Amino acid sequence: MKIAVLVSGGVDSSVALNLLKDQGHDLTAFYLKIWLEDELASLGTCPWEEDLSYVRAVCKQLDVPLKVISLQQEYWDYVVSYTIKEIKSGRTPNPDIFCNKLIKFGFFFKKISADFDKVATGHYAQVTERDGISYLSSAPDQVKDQTYFLSYLDQSQLSKTLFPIGQFTKDHVRQLAHTYNLPNKERKDSQGICFLGKLKFDQFIKYHLGEKPGDIIEAETGTVLGRHKGFWYHTIGQRRKSGLSGGPWYVVSKDTEKNIVYVSKDYYSEDKQRDRFEVSHINWIAGQPPSKHKLHVKLRHGKKKYDAKITYTTNNSAKVMLACSDQGIAPGQFAVFYDDRVCLGGGVITRSVIA
Questions:
Q1: Which CATH superfamily, name and number, covers 211-264?
Q2: 46 carries an active-site annotation
Q3: 46, 59, 99, 324: which is the annotated catalytic residue?
């Protein structure tokens, strides 16, 4: 097949490229330039140059042509702007989900799709086809599994996608990198949000939203305990950064109009069961809601799944009741649904309910 391979300079996408080369496919590697140059320049870091140097070395070793495509404007318009808007509204965004949906498998697809049979990436996920429907399934490595971030893909995107390392564990992929003697075989995995690289999230927030001091108030008593630098630096369920003594203190809510952060020491008490929430804008990968009402749900990337009962209110909204509490349910987060290892899709948490 003629395959476009998205490469980032990391081990995962480089091993994916090697595997496809071994299989004899006609390959072209693509590097997406999405870094926010204004932010990076102001903070004195340009990580994309290091990434691109590794990409060039890997492609040269394999004799695979490389093309660099800039999607910086699209990234700003559809991912970064969304992130800033959500944070400013007091919600908890997930830009990586929109990066996959709109950029890697969106604008990039539109630019090159007519010339290629498939697009391959280094994601830890698997695609299978049954009765004309493409299904997204978890990788064996549950820690590295990235289906959570891919849950907003639709049939037109998933049917044209390959995940060459999806059946492997991270340890095995790292071993393959050594077997292929890749230039980046010892390179550490990247962490954090896709467009930030080594830029810390708080630095990004400060660059765009600045600081706005306000009160930290104990939820139960109304006592002012201290000051914060802006409610947008705090997330529901968060323990860090309060700077208060006598804790631990946890963020329980935020008043965005009054710029108040409410905290509590009794966040985990039994009378505060956080096990219900509402979800909207659900993307069902198969095109429609499943017939089952008992599913598994992830509230964040990682191997933790909850048993859950789903009540469908419309085709793309639902009420969810977890089998046990999760203390970090926050509006703006994504809830992603599973039937065993099959990722069914996901949506945005609009409201959480404390029983």
A1: Adenine nucleotide alpha hydrolases-like domains (2.30.30.280)
A2: no
A3: 99
Sheet-wide strand order for 214-218: 224-228, 214-218, 260-264, 250-255
pLDDT digits (tens, 9 = 90+) for 53-92: 999 999 999 999 999 999 988 988 998 889 899 999 888 8
Q: Which CATH number fits domain 274-354: 3.40.640.10, 3.10.580.10, 3.20.20.210, 2.40.30.10?
A: 2.40.30.10
Give me the torsion for CA of 313, 315, 316, 318, rounded to 10°: 30
Amino acid at site 156: S
pTM metric for this prediction? 0.89
From the list 337, 333, 332, the residue with the least C-alpha distance to 322 is 337
pLDDT of 39 > 80? The answer is no
Tokens coding 309: 């009962």
211-264 and 274-354 have identical folds = no
pLDDT one-digit tens code per residue, 206-242? 888 999 999 999 988 999 999 999 999 988 887 756 6
DSSP letter for each residue of 61-120: HHT--EEEEE-HHHHIIIIIHHHHHHHHTT----HHHHIIIIIIIIIHHHHHGGG-SEEE
Query: Beta strand pairing status for 118-120 and 66-70?
Result: unpaired
Alpha helices in the chain (DSSP H): 11-22, 37-42, 47-62, 72-75, 81-88, 95-98, 108-112, 147-150, 155-158, 170-179, 201-209
Task: Write the CA distances from 184 to 29, 50, 55, 355, integer angstroms.
Answer: 16, 11, 9, 50
What CATH code would you report for 2-122+164-179? Answer: 3.40.50.620
In 3D, which of 78, 80, 98, 84 has the Cα closest to residue 346?
98
The reply to whether 59 belongs to the active site is no
